[in-house]
């Protein structure tokens, strides 16, 4: 489904472009439909930048991104608009993903209107179905984001992403702001969605236990590079790189 090939990104900060800093350095990986690739690494190792590159939210300096057999590296705005439905991101703070002044119902209807779908009964039926899928009832539709719990809000964000029928979803610390009990419920919803719709996930997290439980393969980022990638069990049992060992020792069961 997704092939990322030798992708590099350099940020230039400061006056007149300043000193270039390589955030993502010659990174390659592949992801199959219905599978999860976990992405771990210390803060600043380049995980979020890599996710943004893959989603084409920022341009890469070099390298290629192939999605469903089509090279999208140089897709223009119009081409990307179509693709946005298929490639989405779930952020750690669901509140920041929703308009605070809009009701939940309006936020969920918005993606249909963007697609020029105007049939109100159809939209209402679809929204109700997706809400049920994520374990929420229609009573929340008239509420505003501040009237929902963190877990409910993240479910709304998942429903909003799912209703566009994505094939690839970046999960950027999707449960880090939630209580442990709620975390498990949100992960369950994501697992169900993956099973039912064959969605591929790139799962970024600092929670190494969670990422192990959710990913078939795990890639370790260090200073902008993927320094090792292995099936989840193997990586935790026999990390090849010293850096991975240190990372696991520091953060496992933290
Ligand atoms: N917009 C930007 N402009 C300049 N430098 C940036 C920008 N975004 C990120 N960086 C730098 O790029 C490097 C990688 O950052 P990135 O956010 O991708 O890391 P990360 O692994 O996702 O970190 P975290 O786990 O803290 O979210 C860091 O050195 C960061 O300071």
UniProtKB/TrEMBL annotation:
In its keyword annotation, does this UniProt entry include Iron-sulfur? Answer: no
Q: Which UniProt keywords apply?
A: ATP-binding, Nucleotide-binding, Transport
Give an example GO molecular function. Answer: ATP hydrolysis activity
Query: Which biological process terms from the Gene Ontology are attached to this UniProt entry?
Result: transmembrane transport
Gene3D superfamilies linked: P-loop containing nucleotide triphosphate hydrolases (3.40.50.300)
Q: Where is the ABC transporter domain?
A: 2-248
Task: Please give one Pfam family short name.
Answer: ABC_tran
Assigned protein family: Belongs to the ABC transporter superfamily.
User: What's the protein here called?
Assistant: Peptide/nickel transport system ATP-binding protein
The organism is Dendrosporobacter quercicolus
